[in-house]
Amino acid sequence: MPRSAEAVNRVIKAYDVRGVVGEQIDESFVADVGAAFARLIRDEADQVVIGYDMRESSPALAAAFADGVMAQGVDVVRIGLSSTDQLYFAAGKLNCPGAMFTASHNPAAYNGIKLCRAGAKPVGQDTGLATIREEVIAGVPGYDGPPGAISDADVLSDYGDFLRTLVDVTGLRPLRVAVDAGNGMAGHTAPAVLGPIESLTMIPLYFELDGSFPNHEANPLDPKNLVDLQRFVVEQGADLGLAFDGDADRCFVVDERGQAVSPSAVTALVAARELTRQPGATVIHNLITSRAVPELIAERGGQPVRSRVGHSYIKALMAETGAIFGGEHSAHYYFRDFWCADSGMLAALYVLAELGRQDRPLSELAADYERYAASGEINFTVADAPAAVAAVLADFGPAVVATDELDGVTVDLGERAWFNLRSSNTEPLLRLNAEAADADAVAAIVDRVAAVIAALPAPTGES
């Protein structure tokens, strides 16, 4: 049936499908999305693999999506409870398109779908989501042939085994590893991936699967959601802590002192290991990672390539350049040998392998890859993002050495200082990331940008 363009556009976004269950997304809607997706991929595949996270709404939504796929004559392979990177593994191993039901780090009321083609190739705005959106709005045509069949597959142990073939974790010194699953899917996958490593003692925190997130939001990018793990690491005398988001495709790292390790430092660490394995290789980094990342890649003989923020851009650039690895400051890490898809658990294995082969604590190891102070991502709600950016640029005036517009605007202030302002693809937000030689210089940039934005007209409904 035809649907309101306004309602569909609120849910089918630039990278995925996501909305409030019962208000913006329901079983009827995802059945239409499933049918449209099946039509999109029918000429290139005869089956779709489907996984889902621990949210209460996920099983029913996944079943409705499967019904839509099968109604178009395409088979369905169900893998049940899954992390997003486990779904990517299945799409790679089975060489078929996939659909993962998750709203990642969003609150419990939300759910959504991450879609990929065979080999875990992303489906985004320009690679299929726009077509799906148009068909859902117009009404998905029916199919006259026989319906598809449904089957089940358990890929969890194969997924864990495969990740461990990509990183040598033999002969490591004993490590105590605290893992905060945030009541998300890492509680399902960490035992399968990390459990068989004899030198590791895994200390679990919030492993119970619970889509209501009773302990904290499953979004470690927000510092308040790392506090429990930071305390836990110190209390347990752990060598490090690992925190995962709801669908466990992102991994955040805490050192033995309970201090967060920058995802840019993790990017540089993994890049260094990959460049040892393949000297001279290309490594992708997005434009808000620390400038230490391309510096370190170049110093180790690699070829750094700068990308826009977002998995679809990183994955496309990796395929285009043959890059061995890609990293984002949001703690998404992409691996050529994992179908160019992102895997937080695989990044964790790299950190464990590097730490376990030396006697130094993680705080000292991480310091090798950190050269600058950074603000982290700061969000501003604005009425007019372009006007806000223009006002900030005007305020900095002669202090601006150079700008570029690869993604939003990146402003070089000289003296090893820069900032980036870019609009969110999904929310009325302007995102600021700043970096400089020390914390005082970063604070000065942030305060100045915030003051300019605060002087602008407030968004409707705010004062």
Automatic annotation (TrEMBL):
Keywords: Isomerase, Magnesium, Metal-binding, Phosphoprotein. GO terms for biological process: carbohydrate metabolic process. The keyword Iron does not apply. The keyword Magnesium applies. One of its GO terms (molecular function) is intramolecular phosphotransferase activity. It comes from the Bacteria. Its cofactor is Mg(2+). It holds the Pfam family PGM_PMM_I. Residues 11-134, 158-258, 268-372 form the Alpha-D-phosphohexomutase alpha/beta/alpha domain. Belongs to the phosphohexose mutase family. PANTHER family: PHOSPHOMANNOMUTASE. This is Phosphomannomutase/phosphoglucomutase.
